[in-house]
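Could someone model 2-oxoglutaric acid with this protein?
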Amino acid sequence: MYNQISLWDYLPDTNNPTLENQVNKKTIISTDGEVILYPNFFSFKESNHLFSDLYSGVNWKQETIYFFGKQMPIPRLTAWYGDEGKSYTYSGIEQYPEPWNPTLKSIKSKIEEIAQVSFNSVLINLYRDGKDSVSWHSDNEPELGKNPIIASVSLGATRRFSLRHKHSKTHKIDIDLTSGSLLLMQGETQHFWQHQIAKTAKEIQPRINLTFRIIH
Ligand SMILES: O=C(O)CCC(=O)C(=O)O
Ligand SMILES: [Mn+2]
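Reply:
Sure, complex below.
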C-alpha cells in the first residue's frame, strides 16, 4: 500500500475558535499509532524568520558514530536544547542540553498549545543539502518512555519524510514536509512505525527540523 498525501485533504473546523481548530490538520496515520500533520502551522513570514534565526543562532555540532569499527560523521548537523538536568545518551555518551533561547521558547509554547503537553527538550537537525539525511529509525530511546509524543517542526527547504510499518515494510507513506509544518507523532507510533528523511539528488536548500520531546 502506498499513499501520497494530497494538499486538498486539509479541512479546518471554522466553527470552533480554539487554536487546534483554527489550523488545517490532516491525520496521516490512525492505525498502530497516531500521526497528525498541521501543514501551515507557522506562516511563510514567521517560518523564514525562525529559519534564519536558528540557522545562524544554533550551536550546531557534527556528531560521529562508530560504523564497522570506524568513526564516521553523521550526515547532518545537530544540536540539543532543553531543561537543565535532562540528559540524554547519544552514541553511548551521556550529554547535557544547552539552555533554551527565546526563539526556541516561542516555538515550544506555540506547539504546546496544540500538543497539550510540556516538552522539556528539543533535538535540532540541519540538513545542509540533499546529501544530508536520517536513515530508517524509530524514536524509541528508553528515556522517552513507552508511548512518546514527538512534535516535529520543519523550516526551510521541503524534504520528503517517509513512514513505513515495521511488520509490513511495503506499507509506506510519504509526506513532503514544507516550511512551517508541524507533525505530531504519538500513541504507539514508535512501536509500529519507522521514519526517515532520504537523501535526494535534487539541488536543494538547507532545512532545519526540530523534534520536541519529553525526556523522563
Ligand atoms: O528531519 C525530520 O523530519 C526527522 C528527524 C528525525 O526523525 C530525528 O531526528 O529523530
Ligand atoms: Mn526520528
